[in-house]
Amino acid sequence: MLDPKDFEVASPPPDSTSAMEFSSQADFLAVSSWDNQVRIYEVQPSGATVPKTAYSHEAPALCVSWSNDGTKVVSGGADKAGRMLDVATGQSTQIAQHDDTIKCIKYLDQGNIVATGSWDKTVRYWDTRSPQPVGTVQLPERCYAMDAKGPLMTVGTAEKHICIFDLNNPTVIFKNLTSPLKWQTRVVSCFTDSKGFAVGSIEGRVGIQYVEDKDSSKNFSFKCHRDDAKNVYAVNDISFHPIHGTFSTAGADGTVSYWDKDSKQRLKPFPKTNGQIVSTAFNRNGSIFAYAVSYDWSKGYKLSSPSNVNKIYLHAVRDEEIKPRTPKKR
């Protein structure tokens, strides 16, 4: 764990965690896993967790997202299906279908609309009350990563394409970029103010990119998740703090760091955990930071073993760890 005081989540998935997200309404954490399940945990004020409910896909569940009102959870998986849980009734229904694995899913701010990104090289939009997609967009390659904040949606695909969408006109790619990083995209995460996004790759680098050309002078990339022996580790997740707009990176080296993009500083490095950190999430006010330690599949199935750790921890975020710093004088 990052800190001896961190809480361990009770009854974690027995296989690797693929994604996590907190509800924007209460301290409920949704977790998708390679064991085909999506689980919901309630985090109590004491830091203790209670498993509340779970539902299944027919193959590994790879992504999860909450509705804005906190009443629904949606998820996608290798069964090519998008599913929705009604938290009040505990009933799950299928709401989306692709021709290949659904790697990414996002409940959008626009009413009942859910976006799904798939290895079939499409993004599809679904009204959760209708079985047919309300829009489909052809991507240049397989979808590997996706995030949305306000009107901005960013999709990272194979071959380093990054497609930017303005959700006011969702069926047209607003901008098609090549990733500023040299290697395969692992994660994209939108800024809290929707003005840009961070992209992380398998080579232990993060790129900070603004959408508008007038802000392009603020674009930069930096190295992280590398060690003194020059070993390079994948950046598995990037999470933005909902209040301060600073962010975390988590890597296959088992470390997490907090960063401030505006002053280009690392705010806090955490000590190494005994496993790879595969997914992270801040709760709605940024007071809790969840991180999942499990195998990240970056070295293939041969290194997946029953002895691999599968744990989720909750870290109580202190303001001094995550608040932006005054930029250094140059």
SSE order and pairing:
Layout: E1 7-8, E2 17-22, E3 28-33, E4 37-43, E5 49-56, E6 61-66, E7 72-77, E8 81-86, E9 91-97, E10 102-107, E11 113-118, E12 122-127, E13 133-138, E14 143-149, E15 152-157, E16 161-166, E17 173-178, E18 185-190, E19 196-201, E20 205-210, E21 220-223, E22 235-240, E23 247-251, E24 256-260, E25 265-269, E26 277-282, E27 288-293, E28 311-316, H1 319-322
Antiparallel strand pairs: 1-28, 2-3, 3-4, 4-5, 6-7, 7-8, 8-9, 10-11, 11-12, 12-13, 14-15, 15-16, 16-17, 18-19, 19-20, 20-21, 22-23, 23-24, 24-25, 26-27, 27-28
Account of the 3D structure:
It is a single chain. With 330 residues, the chain is mainly β. It contains 1 helix and 28 strands. Strands 1-28-27-26 form a 4-stranded antiparallel β-sheet, with no helix packed on it. The relative contact order is 0.12. This is Poly(A)+ RNA export protein. Pfam families: WD40 (PF00400).
Which terms would index this structure?
330 residues; mainly beta; four-stranded antiparallel sheet; 1 helix; 28 strands; 1% helix; 50% strand
